[in-house]
UniProtKB/TrEMBL annotation:
PANTHER family: MEMBRANE BOUND PREDICTED REDOX MODULATOR, SLL1022 PROTEIN
Ranges annotated as spanning the membrane: 21-44, 50-72, 93-123, 143-164, 184-202, 214-234, 246-265, 271-293, 314-332, 338-355
UniProt source species: Paracoccus stylophorae
Keywords for this protein: Membrane, Transmembrane, Transmembrane helix
Pfam families: DUF475
Listed name of the protein: DUF475 domain-containing protein
């Protein structure tokens, strides 16, 4: 990739993309060591016992693995968008963007939910998280319905928009993808499909109040996706070549941030099943987020998406599956391990299909 050497410090070191794979995860390994050390220190401070320290250490490690397993598709989609961005905006996303992802979504976002749901100030929410973690976790759990509806709708639109593209000419599951590409010229077809899914799951909610909350949050998720698309399109078509290039980077940057937020909903909410301590959750999920960044850099630098042609397809199928799972979680609990393994399975299957296709062409 011509501009990839400017995408980050790791990218510059990688040069032509021939660096060892482990080299891309250098910062992720460093953050893992620091994060697990902080987790152990936090465990000792809160429990004062070796057993308690090891327990918190283990929970941080499990949360990191959970975040990584849930974010394979996130890294692939990030790489898909980054490869078309200017180098300076690649750098900005991989630096400032990851800070927003780690601290914004793993710390600020859970606090904001409690601030809005409980009607208290940010400082009171932070005190509540530190002093009364059980109450904090209860408020987060009660807010799961609108979060599932919002995030599920946004992710469904992301997945459908990939397949309903009349310019898309590489198909993995040809019998359905060929039809979706053909019908992509029908204006608003992906919006109609998403709204049908929203109406279907809204009707399954147990009472009228839950139906209204679900439908309202889902409409906001749809509106957010459309507004980000409109903003990106507007900025991309701004007058002036330099202005257009810079502004288009802003639109793509905002798109990736909202996308990362939607991916994070499931992990943040699910993390409270393992721990009610906000700081333990932030450490574990923050470690996982660094691996997402490293995987994104590797995919862009090595041109993996070009080499394995169906990898993107598997990721976007996983996104649609995740959106349906988030809808279903508004009705009953689905273990996070099912979500993670399901997405990883689809991506693994697409990778296997890509390897088979490459071998068939070579022979």
């Amino acid at each position: 990739m011509q501009d990839s050497t400017s995408s980050s410090g790791d990218a510059r070191r990688a040069g032509t993309g021939t660096a060892p794979i482990l080299g891309y995860f250098r910062w992720a390994f460093i953050v893992t060591a620091v994060g697990l050390a902080l987790g152990a220190a936090l465990g000792w401070q809160t429990t004062g016992t070796v057993g308690g320290t090891l327990t918190v250490f283990f929970i941080c490690a499990v949360l990191a693995v959970l975040e990584i397993s849930l974010s394979f598709d996130n890294a692939i989609v990030n790489a898909n968008k980054l490869k078309s961005m200017r180098p300076e905006w690649q750098r900005r996303f991989l630096t400032w963007g990851i800070l927003i992802a780690v601290f914004g979504m793993r710390v600020v976002f859970p606090l904001l939910i409690v601030v809005i749901a409980a009607g208290i100030g940010p400082w009171q929410a932070l005190v509540l998280a530190a002093a009364r973690p059980a109450e904090y976790a209860r408020i987060m759990h009660d807010a799961h319905l609108p979060i599932a509806a919002f995030g599920g709708t946004f992710l469904m639109m992301v997945g459908l928009s990939f397949f309903f593209d009349h310019e898309k000419d590489v198909h993995w599951v040809r019998w359905i993808e060929d039809k979706m590409a053909r019908y992509a010229t029908i204006r608003g077809i992906e919006v109609a499909i998403a709204l049908l899914a929203v109406l279907g799951f809204a009707r399954l909610q147990p009472d009228a109040a839950a139906q209204q909350v679900f439908f309202s949050a889902a409409i906001w998720g749809l509106l957010t996706f459309l507004l980000v698309e409109v903003l990106g399109g507007f900025l991309d078509h701004a007058q002036g070549a330099r202005k257009t290039a810079a502004a288009g980077g802003v639109g793509a940057f905002l798109y990736l941030e909202v996308l990362d937020a939607s991916f994070s909903f499931d992990g943040v909410i699910g993390a409270f099943a393992l721990s009610q301590n906000l700081f333990v959750i932030a450490i574990g999920l923050g470690i996982g987020a660094m691996y997402v960044r490293s995987m994104t850099i590797m995919l862009v630098e090595k041109g993996t998406l070009t080499q394995y042609r169906y990898l993107e397809h598997g990721a976007f199928y996983a996104i649609i599956a995740l959106s349906v799972i988030m809808y279903a979680q508004s009705l009953f609990h689905i273990p996070e391990v099912v979500t993670g393994l399901g997405g990883a399975g689809l991506i693994g299957l697409s990778l296997w299909s890509s390897v088979r296709s490459n071998r068939a062409e070579a022979s």
